[in-house]
Every structure is written in structure tokens, then in C-alpha cells.
Amino acid sequence: MRFRHLPALALVVTAATLWASDQPLSSAHLSKQTRLDLIRTFDAELVYIRTSFPMGQKGLTLKDGTITPNGQDLERLMAMWGPSVKPGDLARISDVKVKDDRIRFEVNGGPVRKKKWYQRIEVDGAGGAVPLNPSDSDANPRGTYVDLVFDHYVPELTPQQLKDLLSPVFDFNSKSRLEAYLDTVPPKAKEAIKAHHVLVGMNREMVTYAKGRPPKKDREKDESGVEYEEWIYGEPPQDVDFVRFVGDEVVRVETMKVDGEKTVRTEKEIELEQQPTVAKEADGEPAPRPANAPTMRRPGEAPDPSQSGQDGTIQQRVPMGPMPPPPPDNSPGGAPVPQYANFR
User: Fold this and answer.
1) Which phi-psi region, left, alpha or beta, contains residue 205 (left: φ > 0; alpha: ψ -120 to 50)?
2) How crowded is the C-beta side of 212, counted as CA atoms within 13 Å?
3) Taking 90 as the threshold, does the pLDDT of residue 9 lie above it?
4) Per residue in 285-311, is it b (16+ CB within 10 Å) or e — as a string?
5) Angle at 10 between CA 8 and CA 14, to 5 degrees
6) pTM above 0.70, yes or no
7) Does the pLDDT value for residue 133 go beyond 70?
8) Cβ distance 22 to 59 under 8 Å?
9) DSSP string covering 166-229, please?
10) Is 90 exceeded by the pLDDT of residue 249?
């Protein structure tokens, strides 16, 4: 009977061995490009929560696989402020901030409510500055955060390594927003988005999923006077991509390589199915009218074949003469009384 806990102990030892056998983190500092890639990957990501997060200004700290506060300290915060999210809840990473020795992941808007510009207006008076909206609280009742802390500095790491480090608090195995979107696009566009590649013929949403939000945008006109918008990704000494939109479609992709090579693509590489926006008449026949189409006939009145269609609605306009002037008012006082004629 004393050996009944051996299977559980073996499982813990195996898990610890697998954790130790993971690829070690790089000793290099986090580069600017990797920082942008991580923010693009994790921002607005949907995750399932694996531990309780307290409400209020104090979130969680995760270092070397250990979550703090925990135990009675976490229970005390939960009893005092209540839970922001609980295990099994679906939440959204609303912001990613890289600091000196940590990466902060804000969940559901973070602990502090983001104010609009007009909510920051104050009026100075004899009693000091008074906000125009004093009843608005800065606390976000649903938001929280977790700090992933490293030793001394944030090292160079891949998105998968970051997901592994966050596994005690977040479950990334559920379907993400990107995966859900990729299921709705053609196979060629799906492969291009996964490879962070832009094809001529893509729309703005596809380019955003493939390359992220553009750091720079330009609006100009070409030689023929057509207005276009250009999204610029990268800056020297890295490759720079110029993605040109006319409307919602990519019409030109220009890439400047580090070695000075320039490539330009203008031929359409993907065809997207256009969604109809206006109902059109087929074969020259008018579209059928709905059953509740408005009509000028009174209830119970039969349609006139010479002036109405099959559904009884008026097809011809009946000419009307000028409106006759109102009759003179002979009542005492001479005040004119408006007269109205009934037209049927």
C-alpha cells in the first residue's frame, strides 16, 4: 500500500525531465524585429485561462514556471477583490508590453481602463483642477495582467518558446483568431499568410494578417491620376516591402533587398471572390417585387389594369393640374382660414 503513489511520482519526474530537456533560451538580448514579431503574434490572441486572476491593480507574476501570488495570498486577493478571470474562461490578450526584464500581457483591457481624449479634460478653478466626468472610475472590473519575468533582461526567443513559458497561465491550444480566419480564405492565400508573404490581389485584411499593421503609410497619385495607398514594412538595413492598394486590393508589391536588388510584382497572383453588394436584374427582366411592397391603392380597391402592374402597384403617374386657390374668407374678423382639398 505504501507504493500506491509511485505512478504519480513517476509522472511528475517525467514532466520535470521534459521541462529540463526543452531548448534553452538564447543569451542574446531581444532584438527589435523579434519584439515586433512577438507583439504581432500575441496581440489580440484568444486564450483559455489556466489559473485564477484577481481583480484590481495587482496581477500575477510568472518566473521560472512559478506563479505569484499563490496559495493563501492569492485566495486573500480573490476574497477581497473578486476574480477577473477563472480557469476555463476564454479571454483576449489585449496588449503586450516589453520592459527591461519582463513582458507584460494585459488581459481583457488590462487593470486600468483606457480613457478617451474627452474623458481627460479638466477645468481649472479656485479649488484646483476638476475632471468633467468625476464619476468615471479608472479601474477595469474585467481586466488584469501577468508579468513574465526573466533574469536581468528579456532574451531572444521564438513565439513557441514564449507560449511554453506562458503555459502555466494560458492555454494556446485552442483555435486562435488567425486559425479561424485562415479557414475562410483560399488555399493559396492561406499559405502566403502563414509565410508572411503578400500576393497581388489580396485585400487589406489579408495583408494585415500576413504582415501585421503597417508602421508607415503613404497616399499619392500615379501617372494616370489614380489615387493609391502604400503600406511600408521594414527599414534599411533590412528588406523593405512597399504594398500598394487601390481601393481594397493590392495592385503592386515592390521589394528592396539589402543587397540593392529591386523586385516589382504587378500581375494578379490571386483571385478573390467578389461579394455582391447591389441586386442586379437578370436577362433584362425586372426583379420580383416583395409581397409587402408599398402601394397607392386603398384597402379593398381593385387594381386598374391600365395603370397598375401584376401586383397592383401604380406604374404610371397621373398628371395633375395646378392646385386651385382657397375660397375667400367671409367670416367676421377677416382672418384668413386655410382650406385644404382632399385628393384621392
Assistant:
1) alpha
2) 18
3) no
4) eeeeeeeeeeeeeeeeeeeeeeebeee
5) 120
6) no
7) no
8) no
9) TTTTEE--SPPHHHHHHTTS-HHHHHHHHTT---TT-BHHHHHHHH-S-SEEEEEE-TT--EEE
10) yes
Q: Report the mean per-residue pLDDT for the chain.
A: 77
Q: Copy the grid coordinates of residue 318.
A: 397621373
Question: Does position 224 have pLDDT exceeding 60, yes or no?
Answer: yes
Pairing of strands 227-233, 216-221: antiparallel
Three cell numbers, residue 74: 492569492
User: What structural domains and CATH numbers belong to the chain?
Assistant: 23-174 (no CATH), 179-265 (3.30.1450)
| Four-residue CA torsion sign, 130, 131, 137, 139 | negative
DSSP labels for 250-310? EEEEEEE-TTS-EEEE-S----PPPPP-S---STTPPPPPPTT---SSPTTPPPPTTTB-T
Q: Is the pLDDT of residue 135 over 50?
A: no
CB-CB neighbours of 229 under 10 Å: 15
> Which grid cell sits at 184?
475562410
Cell of 140: 477595469
Which residue reads 477581497 in cell numbers? 80
Convert the pLDDT of each residue in 257-281 to its tens digit.
Answer: 988 899 999 999 999 875 544 444 4
Which residues, in sequence order, are bridge partners of residue 233?
241
Q: 285 pLDDT exceeds 70? A: no
Say how far apart CA 117 and CA 111 lie, in whole Å.
19
Query: Quick check: 136 pLDDT over 50?
Result: no
What is the full DSSP assignment across 139-161?
A: B-TT-EEEEEE-SSSPBP--HHH
- Structure confidence by residue, pLDDT tens digits, 70-122: 888 988 888 888 888 888 888 899 999 999 899 999 998 888 766 555 556 66
Cβ atoms of residues 207 and 231 within 8 Å: yes
C-alpha cell at 45: 490572441
**Contact, 23 vs 161, CB < 8 A?**
yes
